[in-house]
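ESCALATION

Customer reports they have been waiting on this structure for their group meeting. Please prioritize. Original submission:
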Amino acid sequence: MYLVPGNRVLKVANKLRKEFNERYYKVQGRLCLNLGIVYADHKYPLYMVLDAGKRMLKEFQVANNLITEKELTITNDIKAYGIRALCKKENNTIALNFKEDVFEKENQIISIDSRLRKLKVRKDKEIDDKFYPYFLKKVNGQIKPIHIDKLPLCCEIIFAPGIFDFEYLNSSKVRINLTLKKKNNKWQKRDSLFPLIYTRPYRIEKIERLINVTKSFKKEKPTITALENFREILASEIYRLFKDKKDFPTNEDKELIEKLAHTLANNMEGLKKENTLDTLLRFSKNLEIFDLLELELFLDAFNFLEEEKDDSN
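Update from on-call: job pushed to the front of the queue and completed.
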């Protein structure tokens, strides 16, 4: 764990992610980066921040099935960790659709490019990489590494996704909430600030997307008060409409939430500008709006963008 000034943390996190990808791109799915941010007011007790960090690490282990019955033996004492994903190869890409637990029904795209398939042996020469780009697949009851060139066009693999999470500590309740829970004997994402909304943790591919969107807010300068009001009202309406619905959220539910968000944003001052409105609707549909706005409020509180400008001078 690292203690980082609040106005530097996202820059550090994104740099760690990029450096990890540069070094370990070829072994994605077998070696993953789990990255968590716990931020708090300077008066918040440090030992509680550290405790929250430990809880987040435990959350990552559960999300990657590292402490469940999903631990898989390859050969002898070699272990493999991950979750089942349907893998489809097409047009120089691998499309993954996760099949279980925390990331069930989520998708990830991997490009089959020279960075993945080739190995640089000299400045001007590359050869086919026969050592690193392998994925884990069950063959005759055993988990075995299969080279990307020999991977079937459609099959099931074992894949460990990188995970990203963040949490603002403003109470002991929030700190203790940093754990995943089981529902109907299945692990599920933990709840956000509001009931019914289970969005965290994220797969790490989304960290840059979330950060870039919060930066775009700065250009149109929606007021923090308007964003807070939008978040609170939307959450209360979702709870009112869906609190007794067992299969929430279905695709129809998400469409209704998007329409509700559109109505709210169009009736609130400071949220009607084109890019702001488009962002609010896009993220509302998948319930990610609550995390996006929490991150936006965090960036605003620590003047992240202003600090970034200073670094570039």
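Sent to customer with the following note: The longest helix spans residues 224-242.
Escalation resolved.
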